[in-house]
């Protein structure tokens, strides 16, 4: 059973009690000692595999090299075992391991997603929760419960509270969810989790400029920062330190001044006491390394590449118009009014958020690759640039409605494309969800998650190391306290050769 909590702004003289605050309700869910359902357990394992896949694929990218170097400058802290860092044998203090691993997971924009009132990558919870689990020597069963909570809280917040329309970055939902997940992992009481959730939210609200115009390397760092802040918030709360209260509902709080304002009303769904946390099953991963709204469009472009090869030739195409949802049009489409989305010299992070670019390359190549599709040479190919600049997007009310639908069977992230040729012929096609989506043509299951890891780890991690990791992670519920250190992948000899950049530490 789900309970819907009414959330609004309160004047200071209304004195909203803690027990009525959203942060307290989140803490109650986190402290509820419910078990983890078998299908949820299977999906948690899938997502740990998924995170490892995309992390190892990014180990030699500059943001990961820098973040790993920062973690390496912070040795294991007192009162714990430390936490593992992807790619290396050395451990670090848990908040810095979470930082390095969070950047590695997020860099390629290639792991799981959930989209509703707002956007999210719930797998960003895992690096922080796992780092604390390794540092404190907890069991596989404890980790499962913690991750299930992290997903539950993030998905429930994303269903109810829109951040992006106020240009607040979606990691503002990640700080509280990671703090709640860590609270579950450690078996903390409601009061402590409540304080940690408030501190985590307070320190992780930021604008969406990190996802606008020339998108920088901070896009990968933002969720890692939220995870790091969540760990530090839990540490402070465990030491008896308190947070701004009420953090959501206060007259100078997040809702009043950063979101819908003093008259705001939200209805946040949370599991009732004793109810299992199952929200991870509403989420979906990526087959392709690109922003989630691009997933279905890559699949449609691949299909058109085979069925209508003439649409790949700019000499034959007059225009390509993509009819899609409000989000796709205004965030990654031409509605964003970002010239960089049509710039062949733009950064990878920017091209990753350009549906005109992504659709064009997938249309011409009939494929998508996490490295090759973003190279400067690929982006700058003259026939690609010519075709790319003929692609525009437009919001379609029906696709926007389906995007926001609460009915999973009709919720859609695609749209319809109209390609007009110079001879007047119009080629049309449409797609609702990506092929890898649970309702798509080829839904991802354990077999696909494992294949993704083996593909992305090739040439980076020895085969034997991959198989060792897969054996361990698939025994997650049985792992004893202290065995979670094995949930790491070490790069093959000679792979990590780049010199780490120098900083303060």
Which key features would you list for this structure?
alpha+beta; 2-methylcitrate dehydratase PrpD; 505 residues; two-stranded antiparallel ribbon; 43% helix; 60s Ribosomal Protein L30, Chain: A; 2 domains
As for the CATH topology of the largest domain, it is 2-methylcitrate dehydratase PrpD
Largest β-sheet summary: 4 strands, mixed
Radius of gyration: 22 Å
Report helical residue fraction.
40-55%
Which CATH class of the largest domain?
Mainly Alpha
In spatial order, strands of the major sheet run 8-7-9-10
Beta strands, count: 10
Tell me the number of helical segments per DSSP (H or I, 4 or more residues long): 19
Structural commentary:
Keywords: Lyase. It catalyses: (2S,3S)-2-methylcitrate = 2-methyl-cis-aconitate + H2O. It is an enzyme of class 4 (lyase). Monomer. The chain folds into two domains: 2-282, 2-methylcitrate dehydratase PrpD; 292-431, 2-methylcitrate dehydratase PrpD (60s Ribosomal Protein L30, Chain: A). The strands form four sheets. A four-stranded mixed sheet has the order 8-7-9-10. A two-stranded antiparallel sheet has the order 1-6. It has a two-stranded antiparallel sheet with strand order 2-3. The N and C termini lie far apart (49 Å). Helices cover 43% and strands 10% of the residues. With 505 residues, the protein is of the alpha+beta class. The model has no long low-confidence stretch (mean pLDDT 95). Strand 9 (415-421) and strand 10 (426-431) form a beta hairpin. The chain has 19 helices and ten strands.
